[in-house]
Design a protein that fits this description.
The protein is α/β, with parallel strands linked by helices and 285 residues long. It has one domain: Rossmann fold (3-Layer(aba) Sandwich), CATH 3.40.50. Helices cover 42% and strands 23% of the residues. Strands 1, 2, 3, 4, 5, 6, 7 and 8 form an eight-stranded mixed beta sheet that branches. α7 links the parallel β2 and β3. α3 runs parallel beside α7 and α11 packs across α12. The longest helix is centred in the last third of the chain and has 17 residues. The N and C termini lie far apart (41 Å).
Amino acid sequence: MSATNSVHVDPSNAEQLRAWDGEEGAYWADKAEYFERALAAYHDPFFAAAAVGVADSILDVGCGTGLTTRDAARSATSGSALGVDLSSRMIEHARSRAVAEGIGNVSYEQVDAQIHPFEPRTFDVAISQTGAMFFGDLTAAFVNVGRALRPGGRLVLLSWQPPANNAWVRELTGALAAGRDLPAPPPDAPGPFSLDDPERVRAILEAAGFGEIEHQGITADMWFGHDADDAYRFVLGLLGWMLDGLDDAGRARALDGLRSTVTAHETGGGVIYESAAWIVRATRM
């Protein structure tokens, strides 16, 4: 039986399972160093907001290749950290890294955090660095995460601000659109920008039983490769699906556009794009 078939998910997350436990998740696992470096500038502010204590028990939702889980475990020297994700390949990568780094108080599970029966009132803090935006039912997911938190437990998220504030997504997808007017996904659809509206996020979290909700806006440079050639290959591996349906001329325009934008953003420190995110804090009431 394949990993995809062995994971029980809510029906609203079936498409996410196919993506993250398929080719998309495999690419993220293979390029873990790139994705981790892309978000590196957000790492310290995110962990400052999480304020992990030495005895805390941490739940990392959508942990990906597990860097945030491992770093939480390093802070919680007398506690523990559990990372959960839909991707078997990323979970395998996370486990191997934890072993290689000698971190004994960290574990990983391939589960759907929207419905997984976590032990109630177990965790002191739940974190998610760009991982909580993909749930099919955000309110149900945060209700379930909230059950796993002790009363007064903390929730800390890193989520993207709207695309208008994120040059990386505007320019990279704009290039690969090759002049097509591609429809934006509905605001309530799972995806990178499903938590970009603070008022919507507040309503979701309040309905899920959270209070003391705060948004902190933060901007940072994102790294996409060592040089233009490297970034071109990396982005094409990530967004190459956007070429589907293009004829030869359209494909050539898209690839030329991608080459042009990554070249324009090449610096002495790599290919850099501006980005903007929210750090969201909330308390389990």
